Amino acid sequence: MRRLALLAIALLPLSVLAGANRDRGQDEVGPGPDEGPSYFGVVLDVSGKPVDDARVTATSRDGLAMTTRSNAAGAYNLPGFNKRINADEVKISCAKPGYRQVRVVRRPPSGNPVRAVETECRLQKS
Amino acid sequence: MPAAKVLAALALGAAACGAWAEGEVLRYGQALSAHKSIYSLPVALAEREGLFRREGIDFRVVIPVPGGADRMVHALHDDTVDVTHVATPFLVRAALDGSDAVAIAAEFNDPIYSLVAKPEIARIADLKGRIVGMADPGGSIAFSMRKLLALHGIRESDVRVKTIDGTPARLTCLRGGGCDAVPLGQPQDVLAQSEGYRLLGTSNEAVPEYLYTVTAARRSWASANSDLVVRYVRALGASFGMIRDPARRPAVVAAIVDITAVPPHIAERVLDLYAQPGRSALPLRGEIDPKGVAQVIAFMADAGQIQPPLPDAERFVDLRFLARAGVAPR
């Protein structure tokens, strides 16, 4: 149930992602929609409370990174890189001034092919 | 020399080589849409061909989400990136709003947008009364298309304008019959022509001097990291040289295929559009033409985005790094 709620929170911004990525004055000429699995999840402190405005970064093996901020519910959502990048080799990290990352728990992906990868990132006040 | 000292010296040398191989980290911001478009070719090629590594740079592309051109300068200010790719009008707007971001190198001078029409439409003059799918009215594409229409005696009020953002969506409109003509970027313009649609003209016929996209950095950051910026500019310049080098054509075509996911024969035609001798769509070595910046400012004023008195182009550029990298001014 909790995972479903998290999924719902995380997927909310998806509907606006396409619009947000639209470059006014600089055209979108990218390829089609199949960009590989997206990445979503939540940033929590050690007591389980959501951490908002944490920087969440997904980094592929070749160093390409996407970065976003967690919302008030601690949730974040990042689109897929592309089909050639193996989601197993994408590292998720989170950071916020005054905190240090203590662990990142990756949920076992479901579905074949994998459509989304869920992680829970824990921060501790330093 | 005792064996232990030799071993110690070798270990130190290896450590130094390792540090150099990894290089100094440079975080380069790029909008997701730009990352997957022809506009990422200069940095993508520099990365693939080891030009950044050669300059001792550990080059990392960072895509802010949500992205978009209006977010890229912001990414400089919140320490998401060190330098960023940005469309010049957005840099100008951010600077006028108080940012100390400046252009440190040119990436694309003239974007090539092709006005592509249904096969039965032979000339731009034939568009009178027809539906033209246009991009955002405040953006570079719409600016240049209005100029192109005017060059052929057509005012925007002579056509029925439908605003459609994104080349893929405009191509869909053309294919579906909802638009009679649309401006398309690469590679969709080449694809459309291969399907029988007709090329009526290109944006750079009407806008010869422009500065579409640049690498920008905060003036304060760039001054504090000037050696790194100079090495970046030098690597970018080498990439432009490679794009124009016929001997490196296979590598450039392979990069376009990877970036835009088109077949090699389409990538060849896209490269021809940009790298033909005499075309100034790409800078020679990343040089910034202040006249191109002035044209951007003039377009923004035309669109009512900025009011007179118009600012000087020099305010938005810092040419010191190009000069130190040995790039001759235009």
Q: Round the Cα radius of gyration of chain A to an integer and report it.
A: 15 Å
- Strand order, sheet with most strands of chain A: 4-1-7-6
- Report helical residue fraction of chain B: 40-55%
Content-based structural category of chain B: alpha/beta
Q: What overall geometry of chain A do the principal axes of the alpha carbons give?
A: globular
Described by strand count, sense and barrel closure, the largest sheet of chain B is: 5 strands, mixed
| Strand order within the widest beta sheet of chain B | 2-1-3-10-4
What percentage of amino acids of chain A are in beta strands? 35-45%
Order of helices and strands of chain A: HHEEEEEEE
**Count of runs of 4 or more consecutive helical residues of chain B:** 16
User: Which chains make the largest contact?
Assistant: A-B, 28 and 46 residues
Count every beta strand of chain A, where a strand is a DSSP E run of 2 or more residues: 7
Mean pLDDT of chain A: 77
State the separation between the terminal residues of chain B, measured CA to CA: 55 Å
**Low-pLDDT stretches of chain B:** 1-21
